[in-house]
Amino acid sequence: MDKVIEKISDIESAATSIMDNANERKKAFAKEMEKRTAAFDNDLEAQTNAKIDKLRADLETEMNNQLKAQRNESLKILTALETHYKEHHEQYVEDLFQTMIKE
Asked: With 0-12 CB in 10 A as exposed, 13-18 as middle and 19+ as buried, what is 30?
């Protein structure tokens, strides 16, 4: 009977040892997964920030190009209007004068 109790006690000790070992491995695995998750999050955040910065720079470049094109177009229109006015301002005055005296 003592042998049976001793054998049961040995089995219980072995089972406890196995459970303790499993719990330690479980804790180590949880720590490793936590590290990997943090590294993944940091990497993803860095990639996202890099893409946002590139997108922001591209949009700023595009905006500056559009502004430059609009300025150039406005200058062309203004120059054309000034040229047209210089060429026809006397006719405009005459037309206005004639309109005023007819009424």
From this structure: exposed
